[in-house]
Amino acid sequence: MSKNRIADQVADLLEQRLASGYWPIGSRLTAERQLAEELQVSRSSLREALQQLISKGLLASRVGGGTYVVSTKPIGFVDPMLSLFKENPEYRFDVLEIRHALEGNAAWYAALRATEEDKAHIQTCFERMIQLHGKGNPLEEAQADAAFHLAIAEASHNLVLLHVMRSLFDLLQNSISHSLDKLYTLPVMI
Predict the structure, then answer these.
(1) N or C terminus: which one in the chain shows less Cβ crowding within 10 Å?
(2) What is the 3-state secondary structure (H, E, C) of 93-144?
(3) What percent of the chain is helix, strand and coil (3-state, nearest 5)?
(4) What is the arithmetic mean of pLDDT over 160-187?
């Protein structure tokens, strides 16, 4: 197997760890020598993988100070959509359509691949969401709702799907909040 391919595999693995919260934002990664041993790869392959993640805006390297997590999602994906949404609130319907497509697939793959730990996390997020429902704080409820949907995406164990969902988190939260706000202003129908 070529060194480039190994570096790509290591970059993918590290990106999965970042997306799962293995290393929180601001934390320092394990020392290079120790991480290379843990992953059973050469230090040069590890360095190449780290460089890939630095170029994606996920990591930052400090000379003599190690490598630090600066983001859990690649830069530049959601900003244009968030701006578009703010300029025209009617795009919330487009957001709901894409959520429907993505979340349906996330749930399908989560049903196939979720570990017991994933299931417990989803259950915890669901209970938190139910606990906050109707308590008069739509923003906090929206955050809990988004966390629940992200837990399902995490349980899908599809890195691309997870990154798309994480990248859309702000947009998703905005959409949920807006939908809940509208829901609470509609007259009650009996």
Answers:
(1) C
(2) HHHHHHHHHHHHHHHHHHHHHCCHHHHHHHHHHHHHHHHHCCCCCHHHHHHH
(3) 70, 5, 25
(4) 60
The CA distance from 156 to 110, in Å, is 4
Please give the CATH superfamily to which domain 79-185 belongs. GntR ligand-binding domain-like (1.20.120.530)
Locate the domains of the chain by residue range.
3-69, 79-185
Q: Say whether 188 sits in a helix, a strand or coil.
A: coil
Joined tokens for residue 103: 């979340």
Under 8 Å between Cβ of 162 and 154: yes
Q: Which CATH class is domain 3-69?
A: mainly alpha
Query: What was the pLDDT predicted at 40?
Result: 94
The pLDDT of 10-34, averaged and rounded, is 87
Q: What is the arithmetic mean of pLDDT over 124-149?
A: 86
Give the largest Cα separation in the chain, rounded.
67
Highest mean pLDDT among 56-70, 118-132, 145-159, 172-186: 118-132
